[in-house]
Description:
Helices cover 28% and strands 14% of the residues. By secondary structure, the protein is α/β, with parallel strands linked by helices. The strands form 3 sheets. A 5-stranded mixed sheet has the order 3-4-9-8-5. A hairpin with a 5-residue loop joins strand 8 (214-219) and strand 9 (225-231). The longest helix has 25 residues, at 246-270. The radius of gyration is 18 Å and the shape is globular. The termini are far apart.
Amino acid sequence: xxxxxxxxxxxxxxxxxxxxxxxxxxxxxxxxxxxxxxxxxxxxxxxxxxxxxxxxxxxxxxxxxxxxxxxxxxxxxxxxxxxxxxxxxxxxxxxxxxxxxxxxxxxxxxxxxxxxxxxxxxxxxxxxxxxxxxxxxxxxxxxxxxxxxxxxxxxxxxxxxxxxxxxxxxxxxxxxxxxxxxxxxxxxxxxxxxxxxxxxxxxxxxxxxxxxxxxxxxxxxxxxxxxxxxxxxxxxxxxxxxxxxxxxxxxxxxxxxxxxxxxxxxxxxxx
Length: 271
């Protein structure tokens, strides 16, 4: 179970919250270089005012996804990565210390008025936001509407598999939907012949069958990505649940969520 006792006003790092899956690795970096690292930075946000489970929203897949992906980045790339991660709001002055931020379940996002200007300033001045794990037209429309409040002059563009982002660390020569990761339960069931979910890598939301994965981005005037969105895909479960089911790990964590996540972060941090 997710630890629902996280205090949003005092939490600072993912390491402060106990694993709710199979545990997370730990590692260290050279003394004196603790701040000279990439940091998985998760954003706390306010969901839309509607009845919804308390585990949905910014805290979904936390802290295991953050720490597991951070470890894999340290393991398979030349990047040095914080073993603690970071959790903050976009109104926190320390936001500008972290060039990359992550937002999960943004289909239920609602920015406060006071969050608009800091996030706009952050994105226009070199920061990048990755939005992940949201499904269907209803959730996409809400997320796009909220981002338009921040960047009203910019539009999302669809990325296809020829984009360098898919080939910078791992050469992902597959159709886009072969990178789709569903929730871990559906993913594990999808591997069992005879299961009603056999072969299913998508989810159903708001009455919609969300079959097609999309990766969309907003670029600035110099061609730098400011916002990237992996829609109809749950990379977070691929990172969080890696140790719970061997089949899920090999098909979704190993082949999809980790290679895609590592590619996206490596590309964003080097471009």
